[in-house]
Amino acid sequence: FKMAQALVPTLKRLFAPRRLVTSPRDSIQYNPTSKNIIPNPLFLGSGGTNGAGCTGTVASNWSAVCGVNVTAVHSLADANSGVGKKQIITLTASAAGYYTIFDGSVFTNAVVGDMLVAAARINVMSAVNLSGIKFGIASQQSSIEWGRPSSASGSQTVLPPEFAVLAESFPGAWKAGSTYGTASFRFDFAGAGSAVIEIETAEIRRQ
Q1: DSSP string computed for 115-149
Q2: What is the pTM of this model?
Q3: CB count in 10 Å sphere of residue 38
Q4: Residues 6+ apart with CB under 8 A from 101
Q5: Three-class SS of residue 164?
Q6: For 106-144, what is each residue's pLDDT tens digit?
Q7: Which of 106, 110, 58, 43 minimizes the C-alpha distance to 66?
Q8: Distance in angstroms (rounded) separating the CA atoms of residues 98 and 86
Q9: Is the dihedral of CA 104, 143, 90, 25 positive or negative?
């Protein structure tokens, strides 16, 4: 019983109700005391990068790339929450494939031993053959991610055509030996299809 009592403060800290980003200053890039290590959690600005198969406007600090068979058109609009912007992604797949939007600088803000939680708001609309969604931060040693099955392109599992989710991972430790790490969203298609995705208020937060 005494051991259980001793664990209560730690469990409360790890599984506290999620409070997503409410200000641009809730980021380590603008405020060194912030526990959120994503530099642009509110998808502000328009200086992001379009990679293969991608066009349109990507929020600053973020980069996007399509796998084979997939194209993406990006735009930005005011977030549904009223805080910051939302990244809108219109995806078209001619066959099974994937799309990802990521920030590769995040791992430089993670410290070995950090207990991290990944969380974001994702809205899916008009989805056809969308088979998987994943969000989080991963390296060769660490993986703190949330996902809706399946994470593999070509999976036979197909997600509902319309849904909104507060994607939130379980807490996970950032381990020694992680020499790279990308905060990323990934969307997979089981075959030819399409979807409109809205992403807002993404964070990787120290607990």
Answers
A1: EEEEEEEEEEEEEEEEEEEEEEEE-SS-EEEEEES
A2: 0.87
A3: 27
A4: 58, 62, 63, 64, 87, 89, 184, 185, 199
A5: strand
A6: 878 888 889 999 999 999 999 999 999 999 988 878 888
A7: 58
A8: 20
A9: negative
